[in-house]
Amino acid sequence: MKELKVELGERSYSIFIGKDLISSPKLFAKVIASSQVMIISNTTIASLYLENLLQTLAEFRPISYVIEDGETHKNLTVMNSIVTQLLENKFSRNCTLIALGGGVVGDITGFAAACYQRGVNYIQVPTTLLAQVDSSVGGKTAVNHALGKNMIGAFHQPQAVFSDSNVLTTLPERELSAGLAEVIKYGLIRDSEFFSWLEANMTGLTARDDESLQYAIERSCQNKALVVADDEKEKGQRALLNFGHTFAHAIETGLGYGSWLHGEAVGLGMLMAADLSYRSGWISENDLERVRNIVVIAGLPLMLPQELMNTNIRELMSVDKKAKDGELFLVLLNGIGNAVVTKDFDEKLLQLTLEEFSMMDGMS
Amino acid sequence: MKELKVELGERSYSIFIGKDLISSPKLFAKVIASSQVMIISNTTIASLYLENLLQTLAEFRPISYVIEDGETHKNLTVMNSIVTQLLENKFSRNCTLIALGGGVVGDITGFAAACYQRGVNYIQVPTTLLAQVDSSVGGKTAVNHALGKNMIGAFHQPQAVFSDSNVLTTLPERELSAGLAEVIKYGLIRDSEFFSWLEANMTGLTARDDESLQYAIERSCQNKALVVADDEKEKGQRALLNFGHTFAHAIETGLGYGSWLHGEAVGLGMLMAADLSYRSGWISENDLERVRNIVVIAGLPLMLPQELMNTNIRELMSVDKKAKDGELFLVLLNGIGNAVVTKDFDEKLLQLTLEEFSMMDGMS
Description:
Two copies of one chain form a homodimer.
Chain A: E1 2-6, E2 13-18, H1 25-31, E3 37-42, H2 43-56, E4 63-67, H3 76-88, E5 96-101, H4 103-115, E6 121-126, H5 129-135, E7 140-145, E8 148-155, E9 160-164, H6 173-190, H7 192-206, H8 210-230, H9 245-255, H10 262-279, H11 285-297, H12 313-318, E10 330-333, E11 339-342, H13 347-356
Parallel strand pairs in A: 2-9, 3-4, 3-5, 5-6, 6-9
Antiparallel strand pairs in A: 1-2, 7-8, 10-11
């Protein structure tokens, strides 16, 4: 088992990465400070792992609350129902919430923990690769609003993150690929050595080699932890983590959430950002090919979906949260392992990139 | 005009106290960092002061959103509708919300600001004495849940507080008395000199003498600012600010919110806490009389309401947020100007106090 520290002063915490962590009572006992514990999960994950975690935590006599699976349930109504459970069970400010699930469960549990009695402890037990390498680390919590994703939320750091590689054995293939998109991202934006390692090991990762997965999770979390420690509230370099995301959000908005997985949209978004970087003369054709190759091997989409043929993607990009006073900022590559936030891109080149990826049906 | 600084590191801000502040464009311009400004108010206050504030802020072309008046509207649904307004008007992370109203408007606006895109700026323009001396200072924000008051919230500090003494001229008499209860509280818990000043000036305060009111606001905010600066997240001495509040919450819960004003319940709660302190041998009979006298002059209730004759107040006290694992902690007096948090009180004496205030109809 590996332990990584996210350094945030008095809000510091550890990420534990290893096999069968959710069957280790001692690990949890170290970070749970109170006797009131509630596990929040969704229907899919609960059927696979809830019983196991309840047994692991038996000494705390935890209660559990299972929400419906899916992004549409990440809303204020469900958050309110979590609070109802907490109040009906007389949970005090010293209680601990545990998020057992992917990004949706983690985000809404974290937000409920941020708001319940103005803030209680919570622990992340991410069960998707994407949540393990991205959303469970960094303290961003939120629910969706009818008019925008993640528009109601808080920065609230967990007490610990337990990333159990064993739960990835039951992860659907598309979700594995989606997680790998965020793994690739860390290589591209700030860790060229890791990117090279990924080029050599991507086949092992898609085959779910446990050792490779653990290393990829660890190195991804290391990268994210360093960025977050530098910029907890996203005022500067944390924005680099949004590499590929402005394109991705436009795709997701255009399709409606849920058609593509977030990581799938990010995978294509990164390729599109790399394409624009190449057209802008910032990276070589060879670098662009390296990005394309790894996206291919990870099993991610290479083209925009047919349904968006007649959609103005450029317009959808403008409503992104990163747009300030109407100006669009993009994260582009200045070489592999070196991303920059910029508004100095050529609109005509962006148009060429959008056309390049609009030619035919997109799922690889 | 007086300016008080609340010292909270990078979250420090100023409280401005004076006459006609809401007609001073320059004051607001100093603390508003962006061009997107939304004023949130309620129907009662909007009819009195919204036009005035809109004119003062004309250079920012602010928009406004008016919510229904009353504690029952401090909920997630109304908070969500504020977010809808923000999104429909394309408000970015750099926007500023302005709370123009009493505690309800301040709490819900502050919470919306805490959550919108994970945190935006807000300014408090409290229009009741209670909000000016208490809820607008310290960054506690919240909405109510059906099962409990202020159960969903955040600590989120404003950019500034503008306490305009002029708005107190239109404040209903009961609300003035309710605000004075919290003013008296500061004297009792940590500022005996201020308590003596209040004994000499309470008649002037109830007659709304502007100079006296400004001084009382300033001294109250000074006291609160010092407590908050020491203990922003309520882990220790900030609990002293809850003097009288465990009794008050029991009264409010028993009656249903809205029958008594919060400050009225606090006024009687302080007297009851003083009574228990006297019975416990911690303060003299003379001190208890001083507390009773000032509560009388402030126009606050002296007895529990008839409707609670058959209610078990002691039981209602146990569900207070300050109860930890079933144990009840109370804030009691160890002399005027010296409050302590304790669980070492005699249950029999508490019972005598409860009986003492249950003899007849309560409104003075």
